[in-house]
């Protein structure tokens, strides 16, 4: 039982760390600080540019934090 709890704790911490890292990237990419990433801001990353249309769920031409959370970079 202790091993299962330890494994779940480690998995949870890993997911939190990944989310925090992605959030930090979002802030760096949102260079104008408006809370979203434009196509122009995304252009610094080839992989983000390639995934942009798929990530932009509401097709507004910008990625919100929740849309960016699905980025596989």
In short:
This protein is mainly α and 73 residues long.
Largest sheet: 2 strands, antiparallel
- Based on CA atoms alone, the radius of gyration comes out at 15 Å
Please provide the count of β strands: 2
Helix content: 55-70%
Organism: Pseudoalteromonas piscicida
InterPro entries: EF-hand-dom_pair, EF_Hand_1_Ca_BS, EF_hand_dom
GO molecular function, one term: calcium ion binding
Protein name: EF-hand domain-containing protein
Task: Itemize the secondary structure elements and their pairings.
Elements lengths: L1 H28 L7 E2 H4 L3 H10 L6 E2 L1 H4 L5
Antiparallel strand pairs: 1-2
Characterize the structure shown.
- By secondary structure, this protein is mostly helical.
- It has four helices and two strands.
- A two-stranded antiparallel sheet has the order 1-2.
- The longest helix is centred in the N-terminal third of the chain and has 28 residues, at 2-29.
- It starts with a helix and ends in a 5-residue tail after the last helix.
- This is EF-hand domain-containing protein.
- InterPro entries: EF-hand-dom_pair, EF_Hand_1_Ca_BS, EF_hand_dom.
- Residues 1-22 form the signal peptide.
- Residues 25-41, 51-68 form the EF-hand domain.
- It holds the Pfam family EF-hand_5.
Search tags:
single chain, 73 residues, mainly alpha, two-stranded antiparallel sheet, 4 helices, 2 strands, globular
